[in-house]
TrEMBL record:
Superkingdom as given in the UniProt entry: Bacteria
Subcellular location: Cytoplasm
Keyword field: Cytoplasm, Ribosome biogenesis
HAMAP family the record matches: RimP (MF_01077)
Keyword Cytoplasm set for record: yes
Protein name, UniProt field: Ribosome maturation factor RimP
Protein's job: Required for maturation of 30S ribosomal subunits.
Annotated family: Belongs to the RimP family.
InterPro entries, per database record: Ribosome_maturation_RimP, RimP_C, RimP_C_sf, RimP_N, RimP_N_sf
Provenance organism: Sutterella massiliensis
PANTHER family, A to Z: RIBOSOME MATURATION FACTOR RIMP
Domain Ribosome maturation factor RimP N-terminal: 10-79
Residue ranges of domain Ribosome maturation factor RimP C-terminal in the record: 82-135
Length: 186
């Protein structure tokens, strides 16, 4: 077991022991450790939740003699990353952006192969370590900035094309995150 995976496992056990969901651990420049946590409870992660986890991890790192300069504990935000099979299962039916390690070829794709996909998570199936994700690929037209919202409001709506159902292995995913519709009108 590598030092990074051992630290990951230690932090995950601690975070989940406190009743939160561990999303990811990042070791960044200048000794920054960034821990992202989530919850299935109504209301999401609060500042108090982050403080509680931060205090516990600070004690843990002192006892385990883990070197770091700064610790940051936060929620995953609106574009929550999808890391594990349980994330894909939990967010089935939601819109997502997926980047694969290599372009995939599938019937109905507008190009010969695509590495970046947007669409809806349908399901995840398969044995642990061999999970396959079923995904409906289509052009997601959700504004992600106030400027995009204004441009979309001026543009006439066009007929949406039918989604293309594709399947890929979880191991083929480089990175993925949810896509949330934001209200820029306040």
């Amino acid at each position: 077991m590598t030092q990074t995976s051992a630290l990951n496992e230690l932090v995950e056990r601690t975070v989940e022991g406190l009743g939160y969901e561990f999303v990811e651990l990042e070791r960044l420049a200048r000794g920054l450790l960034r821990v992202t946590i989530d919850t299935t409870a109504e209301g999401g992660i609060s500042l108090e939740d982050c403080e509680r986890v931060s205090d516990q991890l600070t004690h843990l790192f002192t006892v385990e003699d883990i070197p770091y300069e700064r610790l940051e504990v936060s929620s995953p935000g609106v574009e929550r990353p999808l890391k594990r099979a349980r994330d894909w299962s939990r967010f089935a039916g939601e819109l997502a952006h997926v980047e694969l390690f290599a372009p995939m070829k599938a019937e109905g794709f507008p190009e010969a192969g695509r590495r970046k996909l947007e669409g809806r998570i349908v399901s995840i199936d398969g044995e642990s370590g061999a999970e396959r994700i079923t995904f409906d690929y289509f052009e997601v037209e959700i504004p992600r900035t106030p400027r995009q919202a204004a441009l979309r409001a001026r543009k006439k709506t066009t007929a949406e094309s039918a989604p293309v159902r594709v399947e890929f292995a979880l191991g083929d995913v480089d990175r993925a995150h949810l896509i949330r519709a934001l209200n820029f009108k306040g």
